[in-house]
Amino acid sequence: MDIEEEDDEDDEDSGGRLRSKQDNSEAGYDRYFQDLQTSAKTSNNTLSKLAVLNPKEFNDILASAPKKHDIEIKRLLNAHRSYFSQWVFELHSGFNLIFYGYGSKRRLLNDFAQSSLSNGPLIVINGFFPSINIKDILLKITSGALNITCSTGQVLEHAAVICDYFSDDEREFDHLYLVIHNLDGANLRNERAQTVLSMLANSPNIHLIASVDHINAGLLWDNVKASRFNWIWHDGTTYDDYLVETSFENSLLMRSGEMGGVRGVQYVLTSLTSNGRGVFRVLAEHQLVEMEMSSSDGSDNSALGLPYNKYYQLCREGFYVSSDASLRSQLTEFKDHKIIHTKRLPDGTEVFYIPLDKATLTSIVENMA
Amino acid sequence: MTSNITTRDEFDSISEGCFLVMPPRHTTTRKRKRVSIKDVKATTSRPKVTLSDGFQRLFRGDEPKENMELRRKGFEETWKKTEDLVEVPYLFSSCNYQYDKNNKDQYSTNTTRRTLGIMLDMNHTCLDNISQFVDRAYDTESTMKSLIALPYHEIPTGLVFAGINTPDHATPFEQLTSLLSLPATPENKRTKDNYVALLQSKDCATLQIMMARVIEQFLASNDPSQISDKMDIDNEENGDENESEEDGEEGESREKHEESSKSYTLTANSGDNTCRLQRYDLQMLEGWYKHQMDIRENKSAPRSNLVVILQDLESFAPDVLQNFITICSEYRLRIPIVFIIGIATSTEILHQSLSKSTLGLLRIEKFWLQQSEAWFNRVIETVFIDTPHTIKFGARPYKFMLDHFYLYDFSIGAVKSSLKYALMHCFYGSSLSIFLPLLGRSRPDTLKKLQEMRKRKLITQDHINTLRMQASFKTYIESICDTEPSKALRLVTDDDFFTTAAMADFLCGIETYRQKFKFGLDLIQVLQGQFSAFSTLRKSKRMLLLQSLETRDGLVGGDSTHSEVTRWLVSLVRKVEPDALESLLDALEGLMESNPDYKQRCMTVVDGESRYKISMWKERLVELLAGDKTYVARMEKKAKRLEGMSLPDMEEKRSTETSKKVHAEAIAHMKRKGTEVSKLAMEISDWIHYIFYECLQSYTQVPMHELVYYVQSKLHEKSFSAQPRASVQTALTNSKHYLDCQCCQGGQDQLLPSEPDSCILYKLYLECGRMINLYDWFVAFGCIIEREKSPADNPLNENEVQARFIRSVAELQFLGFIKPTQRKTDHVMRLTWSNI
């Protein structure tokens, strides 16, 4: 809030305005309808022309690749750092902070939280994490940080317990800090999670420090929630890479040997019951055998898939499922995590397959044992 | 395989998305039990890690520590004052609800303060009506005025329209709750002691929870010790209890409970486990209510009602609500339940969410709370015009706040945040804010304070320099250097004089200006009220304030449209009818009397002689009117002669020299030859013109106004209406804007290899159509990357291009610019079409 900052902001703003003026010459909706009319002509090139990178290579290459604007990016980060104490002040004045702008804000916010917010439990939540859910977050707060037990039936009630705790004068901790990376993460986008978080944010001694990256993140909150959050917005453009955030995404390009895929699969498998793992194993083993026979490397796994009735039969034989419905629900879970894909053959039968290459699949199966 | 799974730092894991870091003192010491906290807290005041709440020492760290503390305290005090102004400006004077603290301990001090706040004051009549409605809701037919005998199963329901912005409703409903639960006393005209339960939709996800909430709240309004006993008994959850208390099964489930209710005794010893009622069973409430009615001292008093307030009807789940209403109506004969339902603007929602049969169970009466707009106008008046404390907004922040309120959300909360943030900004970032708390004191007091500050070395050389650098100070010096060169010199050279006597003058000058300005606005208001024929041209104080902030001349002087109001009023007074003159003078006198501010303080310019003048005019007018008929007749004759010379209207915008001359001559002539009455009107209008000129100057004329007027709006705009998408797109198309580097010169349309990878990819993306072929995108990306100068030891290879491409594509997908599609192999969909 110094005077220098004002100048800075003046610059930024005029820049932004300049931009919008120039680009308005071609309004967005015009362009949309224009493109809708003309048939989209794109070439038929596919990525199969490219070599397949495995995750290790990918990471090594990126680590050794020259970094552009390294100095400027560091300078930007340091400029943000100089506001840490101002942010603390804003938090303690009853506002919650939200950061937007291009570049991963993970490092910045973690730095901020660890250096400046030490007078209360700090919960760091990775909203981009594929299986994060609001219940786990609440549990982490109550049983992890506050060491209290409460019935965990309804999340809303659960949140109310936490709010009550922090409005009680005789509490053990004065403040609770929640750092949420990607409040707009896929699993936090739902109404319930946002309501609960907004209730927490509304409580006077719980402080939220959140970041959003999706360009339409502003649509997340209705009037009620927005007023509960009581945001102060900060431009946290860092130009930092999003490697951590995107490592969980089913990336478009790393179809095989993909890092996110493997991390995801392993995580999902460890969180399942032994029967659930069995269901996966049945398919994985079947597919490995098929791969062996057809000496395929995994470029088109759908051809090797297992038809549903046969899959069901195999699972029953292994005592993994007892009914059609339970297999279905198990498979839905796998499908949601994009671990198992399905395809309908021309004759109407549904086949299941795992979209991973042989080496990866083998290692997963080995790890399961 | 596991070697691939790399994590960046301690907060990145593939198995967990949620991490906990405990504060240092707790990780080392043993965990204290909650029971023991009480003792610990009593002895050691909480050790605060961040003592200064993030405040920093300004002047590059040279600012004395006391000053930092001073600013921090200044902020807290000023915000407290402002908050009180916003919530509690017109205390007991207009509000006749004395709050009886002894009776209701359970309300926090916060609520106590709020119960008397501006909202209550404004909604006073409405709340009165509601409480009367509640009181007589179950009165017998004979006492009912308008309604015929009650049909069975109808619950008296008050529908309260509370305005567009639902988050703001919390305060009025809290007030309503505390108001309704006040005990009946003759002075608040209440007849019944009621029990109240306030429900919000967020607490009522299911019927069971909702019921439990209602019952808990009612029981809690009773003696706490009794409840705790009871709640113990009822704590046992029974999972398979039938929860479907829909219309059909309602009767059946009641029969089942009929038996248990027989054994239900509220004051039974707690060891007796005969009551197996669920905590969401209304039977319990019934029993409790009977018991309450039995044990009360005054048996002759009317039975209390049970008021259930549903704060935000719109957000309740309709099926839950329907069941709730149905159940309550079943119990209606045994326990007198009254609903108060909060609703935003229209009853539409009621018909949409409730079925006809449910609606039939309600007997609805409607009430309207004041809209937030009225509140907003009053807050602006109180904070920016009526009170000396706190900062005032300059044109841009003020406009921002107005626009945000009127064009965006009508939100009271947002206005409060806005005020608070301005204060925060001022006290946090400006070293001169230490002078702000001195405002509104008398001059000797201010002087004393300043001298003390000077002595304690709180006013440093840095402060003095900053003060002298203010633009208004410069203009001030320039303006007096011709007339009072010695004073000007002293101001610039003598630090002691400057920081004490001169600063005291400046601070008082600011306050005097405020008082004058307030008077000027009040005068405008009074005059506007006098000319009812022109009511369409009236302007609210809010708009007048905006106008005066926006120009350098204030509301007077210059030919700008901003001074139109004052010119228009002066000319109207000039032409006023004789019989209207009396009421005009009365109004002026009333204005003088109304505000004690004008009687004391530094208002000599306006006050002393004006008061005298007004009474003189009045006397003359009385004489004139009392004058004999011949006099009147002569007057009329005289008036006839003047007919041809009537004044040209202000609306005619003739601005030639001649027309001006004619105008001036006409006025002069009127003065010379006009009737006595018109002479009087002339004098009054001259006086009004003079007052306007004195009072309605722009604040920019006041030296040192920078201390009080907050003019930066950038921060507000950024903090409260940020544009995340625009920021991302700017970063991607114009990286120089953020990075400020030397290498990326050139326009935004150019593609430079030195730009960050994602920027290059995004610019290529902008050239694409609906579908993007990943391979082609890759090739284009590679072409640009190739031009980049890579170090000799690490030449660019295909794989690196690919890896960087993958990284950037993933980023764009993560940001929401593209999404994968199945329509064509290796294609993505484009999702955005313009740079906002």
Automatic annotation (TrEMBL), chain A:
GO CC terms: nuclear origin of replication recognition complex
Any GO molecular function: DNA replication origin binding
KW Cell membrane (keyword) present: no
Residues covered by the Origin recognition complex subunit 2 winged-helix domain: 300-359
GO annotation terms (biological process): DNA replication
Domain of life: Eukaryota
Amino acid composition bias (Acidic residues), ranges on this chain: 1-13
Keywords: DNA replication, Nucleus
Record-annotated Origin recognition complex subunit 2 RecA-like domain positions: 72-235
Matches recorded under Pfam families: RecA-like_ORC2 (PF04084), WHD_ORC2 (PF24882)
Cleavable signal peptide: none
Keyword Zinc: no
Region (Disordered): 1-28
Record's subcellular location: Nucleus
Composition bias, Basic and acidic residues: 14-28
Family indicated by similarity: Belongs to the ORC2 family.
Annotated function: Component of the origin recognition complex (ORC) that binds origins of replication. DNA-binding is ATP-dependent. ORC is required to assemble the pre-replication complex necessary to initiate DNA replication.
Subunit structure: Component of the origin recognition complex (ORC).
Protein's name according to its UniProt entry: Origin recognition complex subunit 2
TrEMBL record, chain B:
Residue ranges of every copy of the Origin recognition complex subunit 3 winged helix C-terminal domain listed in the record: 725-833
Segments of skewed composition (Acidic residues): 234-250
Alphabetic keyword roster: DNA replication, DNA-binding, Nucleus
Family named by the database record: Belongs to the ORC3 family.
InterPro entries according to UniProt: ORC3 (IPR020795), ORC3_N (IPR045667), ORC_WH_C (IPR040855)
The name this protein goes by in its record: Origin recognition complex subunit 3
Domain annotation Origin recognition complex subunit 3 N-terminal: ranges: 114-435
Region (Disordered): 225-270
Subcellular locations according to the entry: Nucleus
